[in-house]
Amino acid sequence: MSLSVLRVKKKLEEYFQKIYHTKGNIEISDVKSLAKGWETELFSFVFRYQEEDQKKEEQLILRIYPGKNMQNKIKWEYEVLTALFKVAYPVPRTHLLELDEEFFGKPFIVMDRINGSDMGEVFETAIETKDWKTITEKLLPFICKLFLELHDLDWRIIPTGISVEEASNPYFFIDRRLTSIEKTMIEYELYELQPILNWLKERRDSVPSEKVSILHQDFHPHNVILSNEGKAYVIDWPSCFVGDFRQDLGWTLLLAAAYSPRELRDDILDAYENELGFNVKEIDFFEMLAAFRRFADIMIMFKFSPNESGLREETVQQIKETVFHVENILSLVREKTNLSLPELEKFIQSIRDA
Fold first, then answer.
1. Same domain, 38 and 125
2. What is the SS3 assignment for 87?
3. What would the DSSP string read from start to end of 13-71?
4. Helix (H, G, I), strand (E, B) or coil at 97
5. Are strands 116-118 and 224-227 parallel, antiparallel or unpaired?
6. One digit per residue, pLDDT tens: the chain, 354 residues?
7. Who contacts 48 (Cβ-Cβ below 8 Å, separation ≥6)?
8. What is the SS3 assignment for 176?
9. In whole angstroms, what is the distance from residue 211 CA to residue 199 CA?
10. Cβ neighbours for 45, distance < 8 A, ≥ 6 positions apart
């Protein structure tokens, strides 16, 4: 259930008064509910206080995690953001991690608000006006440079617990991922996805790791904010991990093919390869890995509940309203694998009929 801005204001004032003993005249104002993602509720607010006889003001974001068993996930995102901020990768500065559910009934973090424009909206405007020159010559090089800068960071800054020896095994990350998705398929009885898993397993030997990188795992223009000062910031990091950089790129390409004209997917790959300096090998494999992930999340959501995947209840309605993107992914899977997927087709039709 979504929180009202009045309740958020009241609870934030109570929370800040509790934790900030050296600050006086604490006031929370201008609370606004922002667009809600699949996993979180977002609120912007202004934090005013007095410290050492000076009046101060901070513009902040409250990010609440309403899904099931989210303590570990929110703690992980906080650690990732802190690590990236320390090495000057452009992420918002994160101030507070609160795992106690006393105030909002769920854990939350508080971070800086970046005032600026959503790059996703800029892309959508360019697509609607068919301004492909702006997309290919300005927007995509800008976004892909930011993407590649992430992949070029030292992956060891993220506290994964993975040893250098493990990471040096060319099949460590792909085997780990294949094992994980098979476990998910069995646990939730997602046997409609068995043909895709079989296809991936058959091609496992063709995808040894090329470069171990930090993976955002949901990198797209709507997760990039261009500040009023002209600096880009990357947001939304709960799925971040470490692995072959192509896993990250595959997810981004899949989302582009799902929600946008197909040529955007191709243009993103071209822009990334131009920035990289060489062609990416076996990218189809990683797009199919991403397709499995997307189908699994949606199937768990409809067969069980959004909370099982750490998603918000309202996400079900979002999927129903954009079922076209699931159909587009199915078309892409058929095109790249030649698989027959009648049971998966029936499931997708059931979403459309719901």
1. no
2. coil
3. HHHHHHH-TT-EEEEEEEEEEPPP-SS-EEEEEEEEEEETTEEEEEEEEEEE--STT-H
4. strand
5. antiparallel
6. 467 899 999 999 999 999 998 899 999 999 999 865 666 789 999 999 998 889 999 999 999 987 666 888 899 999 999 999 999 999 999 999 999 988 988 999 999 999 999 999 999 999 999 999 999 999 999 999 999 999 999 999 999 999 999 999 999 999 999 999 999 999 999 999 999 999 999 999 999 999 999 999 999 999 999 999 999 999 999 999 999 999 999 999 999 999 999 999 999 999 999 999 999 999 999 999 999 999 999 999 888 865 655 555 677 888 889 999 999 999 999 999 999 999 999 999 999 887
7. 25, 26, 27, 28, 29, 55, 56, 57
8. helix
9. 23
10. 8, 9, 12, 28, 29, 30, 31, 32, 59, 60, 61, 62
The answer on 123 and 96 residing in a single domain is no
The predicted model scores a pTM of: 0.92
Domain span at residue 286 reads: 117-353
70: domain CATH number?
A: 3.30.200.20
Please state, in angstroms and rounded to a whole number, the distance separating the CA atoms of residues 92 and 236: 10
Whether residue 73 is found in the same domain as residue 209: no
Q: Which residue has the tokens 């500065």?
A: 93
- Both 15 and 138 in one domain: the answer is no
Q: Which residue has the tokens 């912007």?
A: 44
Q: Is the CB of residue 302 less than 8 Å from the CB of residue 317?
A: no
